[in-house]
Design goal:
about 120 residues, alpha+beta, 3 strands, about 55% helix, elongated
């Protein structure tokens, strides 16, 4: 993972900050699985697992996609997205710096938009 904004860092921490989501990540460690299979492995209901997987997907830790089985059933598969995040003071400072840079770029765009096209007088 590259430099994250504070929002991305908080989404990541929130996503992994739950025991059931950690179990789901561990369940996917050996490769992709469809939801029913993972739910059975984790002894968790499918609706609850979907909720946790959606949170992980929103944070960019897993990706899901539908596939048709040989007998025509639609199966939702999930797999891990490779990640490597080290959290220390530097990580937090970089996230805040990324926020400041994004804010400055947004301010510059708003200023340019407010100024509009330059009128030429001749």
């Amino acid at each position: 993972m590259g430099a994250l904004t504070s929002e991305e860092l908080l989404a990541f921490l929130s996503a992994v900050g739950h025991a059931q989501r950690l179990r789901a990540i561990a369940g996917l460690a050996d490769g992709r699985m469809y939801v029913s299979e993972l739910a059975r492995q984790l002894s968790m209901s499918r609706p609850l697992l979907y909720m946790h997987l959606e949170r992980l997907e929103k944070a960019g830790l897993v990706v899901g996609h539908l596939e048709l089985s040989d007998d025509g059933k639609a199966l939702k598969y999930f797999e891990l997205v490779p990640f490597d995040l080290h959290i220390n003071l530097q990580t937090i400072l970089e996230a805040l710096r990324a926020d400041e840079q994004a804010d400055e770029q947004a301010d510059e765009q708003q200023t340019r938009a407010a100024d509009g096209p330059a009128d030429e007088e001749g």
